[in-house]
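Re-run requested by the PI after the first attempt was lost when the workstation crashed. Everything re-entered from the original request form. Ligand of interest: guanosine-5'-monophosphate.
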Amino acid sequence: MSDCLFCKIAQGEIKSDFVFKSEEIVAFRDINPKAPVHILIIPKKHISKISDISENEQQLVGKMIGIANKIAIKEKIDKDGYRLVFNCGQNGGQEVYHIHLHLLGGRKMNWPPG
Ligand code: 5GP
Ligand code: ZN
């Protein structure tokens, strides 16, 4: 998708603070962090919403979670805990329509979320 912000980030067209890169998945620091650690894990492939994933793409989402767990260890937030979030659609608070897994940590998260 040529006009998608996260496609451009994944392709290196927009400078970002990457913490992980592979053939299929990249992760970078959120530009407006909501916690001391706030990292976005995205597939290079454009998928608009988590509700759009096909059965074949479920494995890709599993890999994104595995990468988030590894980044959490590297960021030293694994012991205290962290939050993994997919916002989906308008009521879910999704602003960028290219799926991204939020990894949030470094402080106590509130529940229920706002
Ligand atoms: P959403 O609300 O769609 O789940 O989350 C989108 C996230 O992307 C927000 O936390 C926002 O701060 C982040 N974001 C938006 N534009 C950029 C950008 O250009 N670079 C980075 N690194 N993060 C961005
Ligand atoms: Zn995209």
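Saved to the shared folder this time. The domain at 5-105 is CATH 3.30.428.10 (HIT family, subunit A).
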